[in-house]
Amino acid sequence: MQTVQQLLQNNNVDTKLVSAIDAVLEASKEISFLLQKGAMSGILGSAEQENVQGETQKKLDVISNDLLKDILKDCPVVAGIASEEEDFPVPANKDGEFLVIFDPLDGSSNIDINVTVGTIFSILPSNGGDASVEKTYLQSGRNQLAAGYVLYGPSTLLVMTTGQGVDIFTLDPETKEFVLTDAQSTITPATQEFAINMSNQRFWAEPMQNYVADLLAGETGKLGKRYNMRWVAAMVADVHRIIHRGGIFMYPWDSRDAKKPGKLRLMYEGNPMSMLVEQAGGMSSTGEMAIMDVQPETIHQRVPVILGSKEEVEMALSYSK
Ligand code: AFP
Fold first, then answer.
1. What is the pLDDT of residue 201?
2. Whose CA is nearest to atom 4 of ligand 1?
3. 152: helix, coil or strand?
4. Where do the domains of the chain lie, and which CATH numbers do they carry?
5. What is the CA(224)–ligand 1 centre distance, in A?
6. If you measure from the C-alpha of residue 267 to the centroid of ligand 1, how many angstroms do you get, rounded to a whole number?
7. Residue-level pLDDT at 161
8. What is the arrangement of strands in the sheet containing 177-182, beginning at the earlier edge strand?
9. Which positions of the chain have pLDDT values less than 50?
10. Atom of ligand 1 at shortest range from CA of 110
11. What pLDDT, on a 0 to 100 scale, did the predictor assign at position 259?
12. CA of 6 to the centre of ligand 1 (A)
């Protein structure tokens, strides 16, 4: 079976970029093994501190962040890193060519209940910029050289793109290698499944309220078909389901907090997931424009997200027109 490194080599991916990807995967394997040991590795519960966004960090958030940071800082091709759990970018190697941006443990509220979590990553060129300053990282998602996530579920999966489609790998616990198990995965254009946190319904803008009302009306409403709903509360798991069997995922704009035009982060979640979804033939939007066309203004910026099966995303967007 083909390993991730063999596939990248066959696809003529720059060997330096492969080294940066390898560093992410090395850390993700460590995270996967810690998760398998669960309570026995002392990783559960709160670290009793908050990240820059005021969210209480779990122990494993902090451990995963430190693992990725330490391994990436030692990787000569990495110029700098930015993490959802770090206040500021962290410079790495002055001759490095890549910036690695990551959410070390997405869906961390799921850790203590033994439900799927994941690591999301995005790799940008450093273009010789100063990796100690935020400005160097503020590139649109279109600049991404690679993006992906490692999903820690019943098995550990890597879902990745370097701009040549989306491939899925499974971590073999015996050889500790990610092996190709689903090549060139695509998202079905039509769907009857949606994912949204319905408890925020009253805070959404009117077009979103109307669209979801029609989803709920099923075959008796304007959309003329019955829908199913799923919400794992970990974007990695919800997006993975969509890559696997189609669907629409929404964390739309809401009026709960004027400073947050959405819950999800552009650089750590929006851009890498959008690259994967577009590479798999799906669509990804803020509601107004493609997420990857957003010019970031700050590293921890939030963004509304509507992504998944192309026809369904187009339908959702049509309610705003
Ligand atoms: P955490 O990583 O802080 O648990 O947040 C996960 C997440 O950013 C994303 O993975 C989920 O889709 C979303 O938040 C879940 O949000 P709700 O708390 O509104 O369900």
1. 96
2. 107
3. strand
4. 4-182 (3.30.540.10), 193-318 (3.40.190.80)
5. 30
6. 15
7. 98
8. 90-91, 78-83, 98-106, 117-125, 146-152, 156-161, 167-172, 177-182
9. none
10. 4
11. 82
12. 34
Starting at the earlier edge strand, list the strands of the sheet with 248-251. Answer: 228-229, 193-195, 248-251, 305-308, 283-285
Q: Is the separation of the CB atoms in 10 and 165 below 8 Å?
A: no
**Strand 56-58 relative to strand 228-229, pairing:** unpaired
Which two tokens mark 293?
Answer: 């066309």
CA separation for the pair 161, 146 (Å, rounded):
6
pLDDT digits (tens, 9 = 90+) for 217-254: 999 999 999 999 999 999 999 999 999 999 999 999 99
* pLDDT of res. 61: 87
Which pLDDT belongs to residue 21? 98
State residue 189's pLDDT score.
Answer: 98
Q: For the segment 128-160, what is each residue's pLDDT rounded down to a tens digit? A: 999 999 999 999 999 999 999 999 999 999 999
Burial 238-249 (b: 16+ CB within 10 A, else e): bbbbbbeebbbb
Cα 285 to ligand 1 centroid, rounded to whole Å: 18
Q: Which residues line ligand 1 (CB under 6 A)?
A: 55, 106-109, 197, 233-235, 238, 251, 263-264
Q: Which atom of ligand 1 is nearest to the CA of 233?
A: 15
What's residue 83's pLDDT? 98
In this structure, the dihedral spanned by the alpha carbons of residues 59, 65, 71 and 75, taken in order and rounded to 10 degrees, is: 180
Return the pLDDT at 57. Answer: 64
User: How many CB atoms neighbour CB 182 within 10 A?
Assistant: 14
Read off the tokens for 230.
Answer: 């799923």
What pLDDT is recorded for position 306? Answer: 98
pLDDT of residue 49: 67
Find the 250 Cα to ligand 1 centroid distance in Å: 12
Q: How far away, in angstroms, is 156 Cα from ligand 1 center? A: 20
Atom of ligand 1 nearest to the CA of 199: 19
SS3 177: strand
Nearest CA to ligand 1 atom 17: 233
Q: What is the largest CA-CA distance in the chain?
A: 61
